[in-house]
Design brief:
Helices cover about 80% and strands about 0% of the residues. The protein contains ten helices and no strands. The longest helix has about 40 residues. The two termini are about 25 Å apart. The relative contact order is 0.19.
């Protein structure tokens, strides 16, 4: 652990040491998503609440102050442009440092979640709720189905990874708590903004969170275990050479 701290920003390998955490995250996220998906396919009770809630948020947005609307629009950009920029910076940093495990965590974990989002949303092909704010933001963008929310999926994966990397390196409990709080705040803020602006139904948001939790547990656990076995194999080969 100390060696990793000296060398730079490294994974604490908590999921490698305790893979049961990743397994529980995967099972929990997958089960929640399945429940939400079944409600969508069979028009269950959760889906019936979506329209009323979407209309309520739509009315609030139309009657709300421009400041509140702009703050919520900020959640859209935080979950996309800002996230892409920071993840690209981290990727380059890990690449320069030759931290291949962390490179894989960004490339497979964060960026790979986009492929999962696209495959799922085009499987269920759920229309988004109509909203003037949505139309403005997406006027030059692709008409992508809304279930699950890609913003909330990647928010869990990315901001969760940031907290996962940073918290073990911080000594102060207050600072640790602050990092965790900011990560949770960013994830919740992005989700609420998507709902408020009418870009998604509530079940879209929750489904994104669920898939994000599942992919976080699965991808990062497998990546850490793969690179750990690779390191052990290298050490074994070196010992045989000696």
């Amino acid at each position: 652990m100390e060696k990793q701290k000296e060398n730079g920003l490294r994974s604490p390998e908590l999921l490698r040491k305790h893979p049961s955490i990743g397994i529980v995250m995967f099972i929990f996220g997958a089960l929640v998503f399945i429940i939400l998906a079944l409600n969508l396919v069979y028009n269950g009770p959760l889906i019936k609440w979506d329209l009323a809630l979407a209309e309520s948020f739509h009315d609030s947005a139309l009657k709300g102050s421009p400041l509140v609307v702009n703050i919520m629009i900020g959640g859209y950009y935080l979950g996309k442009e800002v996230l892409i920029a920071i993840s690209l910076f981290l990727f380059i940093y890990f690449l320069i440092k030759r931290f291949w495990r962390e490179v894989a965590m960004v490339a497979i974990g964060v960026w790979g979640s986009t492929l999962i989002f696209l495959s799922l949303c085009y499987t269920f092909v759920r229309e988004r709720p109509f909203n003037s704010f949505t139309e403005t933001i997406w006027s030059n963008g692709p008409d992508i189905p809304g279930f699950p929310s890609g913003h909330t999926l990647t928010a869990i994966i990315f901001f969760g990874l940031l907290a996962y990397l940073l918290v073990p390196r911080i000594k102060s409990r207050i600072e640790k708590a602050l990092v965790v709080f900011l990560a949770i705040f960013a994830v919740v803020y992005i989700g609420v903004s998507r709902l408020y602006l009418g870009d998604h139904y509530l079940t879209d948001i929750l489904a994104g969170y669920a898939v994000g939790i599942a992919w976080f547990g699965l991808s990062y656990t497998l990546i850490e275990r793969f690179f750990h076995k690779r390191e052990l194999k290298k050490e074994k080969n070196k010992s045989h050479e000696k």
